[in-house]
């Protein structure tokens, strides 16, 4: 009976912040979906390049392989960061504090921008070699 009382007592604090916890979970799932999409872009670019045999240039082939690997690395980094941020925000919600996560957002934006740059470089090189 005493354990049941503790569960009811501790759940009162969780229910108090239920909306914030649910929003935190939705944000976490959005980051995971984003990571999966980025990995998908890497796989799509790599598989389209080699399936359609657009170019047989070894430099471009190497660039595409690096692009695919880098997209998977970004996916992994985003999954780890989002899990870490989720746990951190969960603790902050329970403690009633808010600390913005500027550093991880800037970091993820930077590595994603570099991936976009690599895709742009790939497409530019493809056009230059085809011409």
Describe what you observe in this structure.
The protein is mainly alpha-helical and about 130 residues long. The chain has helices at about 1-15, 20-50, 60-95, 100-130. It has four helices and no strands. The radius of gyration is 22 Å and the shape is elongated.
Instruction: Give the end-to-end Cα distance, rounded to a whole number of Å.
Output: 79 Å
Question: Which consecutive residue ranges, at least 5 long each, have pLDDT under 50?
Answer: 3-7
**Secondary-structure content class:** mainly alpha
Could you report the average pLDDT, rounded to the nearest whole number?
87
Classify the helix fraction into a percent range. over 70%
Relative strand content: under 5%
Which overall shape is indicated by the principal axes computed on the Cα atoms? elongated
What is the CA-atom radius of gyration, in angstroms?
22 Å
Please state the oligomeric state of the protein chains shown.
Answer: single chain
Largest sheet properties: none
N-to-C SSE string, H for helix and E for strand: HHHH
Helix count?
4
The tally of strands reads: 0
